[in-house]
């Protein structure tokens, strides 16, 4: 592949998670089950929110968008990783590598901003309940979701413009199961130390900005809840606790990958797996298991399905 940036590398070699065939067979089964759970769980959430009129509110509109993002976040890297467990030599084309970088940062950046939007939604619901449906109307919700996708796209393209200009002419081994910017930059035929710091800083600024905004938002919400009546406080704390769990588990790996890299191979691989595979499980597991309205919607959906089968 001869590109305008004088790249001569046509494909990269992925070293994967491990080299033992027995371990790879075990990981194949584990990640296949996890991936199917992610897809089915998030699809169920989207179907419930779309079909159940009781869930037609701003909070669940944003939750449905989060499910949609999680499906794509897991689909960028996980299917490739699962099929690679069956291969002795794991390769990815130059174009495929660039696509992984683009979509990981596009979708990941969009999810970071969407989590901030969801925190804003909870702030309005808890701190300004009388004006909630006036402030968080459908038009504003759509605008905030579009803004999250736009910010994620701009962030990803800012990374891609730099990556596509780098010369790749020699090393092609990536010690991971997918392409990511810190690993790919190291393979460029140039002194990439300073560039690597700048590229990590680009991702780090987005991650840290969203993380700080989320900490401020939930701190203010919890302070407001603490000063309110106990009857409404318990439900608000329960909702915020679920959101905070998602925030910590989602942003933790991102911070250690881009803001404070540890440069320990097995730790980096664990964080990459957590970010790309386990994080999309948070939505169907944490939100659904802790949400009574979602559970009630599931019961209504099951009752409707049973009645529908009985009438056939």
Keywords:
mainly alpha; Rhopdopsin 7-helix transmembrane proteins; 3 strands; disordered N terminus
Task: Describe the secondary-structure layout.
Blueprint: E1 11-14, H1 21-51, H2 58-84, E2 91-93, H3 94-127, H4 132-135, H5 138-163, E3 173-174, H6 181-185, H7 193-227, H8 230-259, H9 265-289, H10 292-311
Parallel strand pairs: 1-3
Antiparallel strand pairs: 1-2
Helix pairs in contact: 1-2, 1-9, 2-3, 2-9, 3-5, 3-7, 3-8, 7-8, 8-9
Describe this structure in words.
It is a single chain. With 312 residues, the protein is mainly α. Helix content is 76%, strand content 3%. It has ten helices and three strands, in the order E-H-H-E-H-H-H-E-H-H-H-H-H. The protein has helices at residues 21-51, 58-84, 94-127, 132-135, 138-163, 181-185, 193-227, 230-259, 265-289, 292-311; strands at 11-14, 91-93, 173-174. The chain has a three-stranded mixed β-sheet. Residues 1-6 have low confidence and may be disordered.
């Amino acid at each position: 592949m001869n590109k305008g940036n004088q790249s001569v590398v046509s494909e990269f070699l992925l070293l994967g998670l491990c080299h033992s065939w027995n371990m790879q067979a075990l990981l194949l089964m584990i990640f296949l089950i996890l991936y199917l759970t992610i897809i089915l769980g998030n699809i169920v959430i989207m179907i419930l929110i779309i079909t159940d009129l009781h869930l037609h509110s701003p909070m669940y509109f944003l939750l449905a968008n989060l499910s949609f993002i999680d499906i794509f976040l897991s689909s960028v890297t996980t299917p490739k990783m699962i099929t690679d467990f069956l291969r002795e030599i794991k390769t990815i084309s130059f174009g495929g590598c660039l696509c992984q970088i683009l979509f990981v940062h596009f979708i990941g950046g969009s999810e970071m901003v969407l989590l901030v939007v969801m925190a804003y939604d909870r702030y309005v619901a808890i701190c300004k309940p009388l004006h909630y449906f006036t402030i968080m109307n459908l038009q504003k919700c759509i605008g905030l979701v579009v803004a999250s996708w736009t910010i994620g796209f701009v962030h990803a393209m800012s990374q891609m413009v730099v990556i596509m200009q780098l010369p790749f002419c020699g090393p092609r081994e990536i010690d991971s199961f997918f392409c990511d910017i810190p690993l790919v930059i190291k393979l460029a035929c140039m002194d990439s130390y300073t560039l690597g710091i700048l590229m990590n800083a680009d991702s780090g600024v987005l991650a840290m900005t969203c993380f700080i905004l989320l900490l401020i938002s939930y701190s203010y919400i919890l302070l407001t809840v603490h000063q309110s009546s106990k009857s409404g406080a318990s439900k608000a704390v329960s909702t915020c606790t679920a959101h905070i769990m998602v925030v910590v588990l989602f942003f933790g790996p991102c911070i250690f990958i881009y803001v404070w890299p540890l440069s320990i191979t097995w730790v980096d691989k664990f964080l990459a797996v957590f970010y790309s595979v386990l994080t999309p499980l948070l939505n169907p597991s944490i939100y659904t298991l802790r949400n009574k309205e979602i559970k009630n919607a599931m019961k209504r959906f099951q009752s409707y399905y049973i009645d529908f089968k009985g009438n056939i």
